[in-house]
Amino acid sequence: MAGETEQSARAGRDAEAVSRFVERFASDLTSAGMQRMASRVFAALLADDDGTMTSAELALALQISPAAVSGAINYLTQVSMVGREREPGSRRDRYRLHDELWYTTFANRDRVLTRWESTLKEGAHVLGEHTPAGARLAETAAFFEFVQAELAGMMDRWSEYRKTLDLPTADETRAP
User: Fold this and answer.
1) Which residue, 143, 123, 144, 145, is CA-closest to 134?
2) pTM above 0.85?
3) Can you spell out the DSSP letters for the chain?
4) Cα–Cα distance between 175 and 31 in angstroms, integer?
5) Which of 103, 48, 112, 60 is CA-nearest to residue 81?
6) Cβ contact 75:35 at 8 Å
7) d(CA 150, CA 44)
8) CA distances from 31 to 24, 35, 155 (A)
9) CB–CB of 25/40 below 8 Å?
10) How do the pLDDT tens digits run along the chain, 176 residues long?
């Protein structure tokens, strides 16, 4: 990835190996259902030391068009995986990974699950909970209710577990 060659060289990294990692992880994300370009943009940001790049930097690093970057960023901001911020004194936006990225991403899924659960319960009521379709919707709503309860407990356990790890925080790793 041309845009990361300079950063990789400064950090003593093999730029080709970084590029292979980005493409491999993007492929893993795509296999799990994420849009292909969003996967590539997300993986590039994840591999960037400060987790922030401009549209031009992403386009150069991934050898994609600005339109492809824009579409990917729109998706990633919509699912709360990336934030948009204005560069001071500039009209350019920078795209940044959220701090505690995975915690934030999964916590945001809680709102989606709540909405799905509510809609599914309404659908089960409309269809009749004792009909095959209504029963299927009621079971699906119960599943999401269960997942939400488990997710909340898991997030609490992660916070406690994170404290036991010898990992730097995002603030400690950012350049001044």
Assistant:
1) 123
2) no
3) -HHHHHHHHHTT--HHHHHHHHHHHHHHHHHTT--HHHHHHHHHHHHSTTSEEEHHHHHHHHT--HHHHHHHHHHHHHTTSEEEEEPTTSS-EEEEEPTTHHHHHHHHHHHHHHHHHHHHHHHHHHH-TTSHHHHHHHHHHHHHHHHHHHHHHHHHHHHHHHHHS----HHHHS--
4) 33
5) 103
6) yes
7) 31
8) 11, 9, 25
9) no
10) 444 455 555 567 889 999 999 999 999 999 999 999 999 999 999 999 989 999 999 999 999 999 999 999 999 998 888 998 887 788 888 999 887 777 777 777 777 888 889 999 999 999 998 999 999 999 999 999 998 888 888 888 988 998 899 877 655 555 54
Token pair for 9: 């060289």
| Residue 122 tokens, joined | 């309404």
In terms of residues, how long is the chain?
A: 176
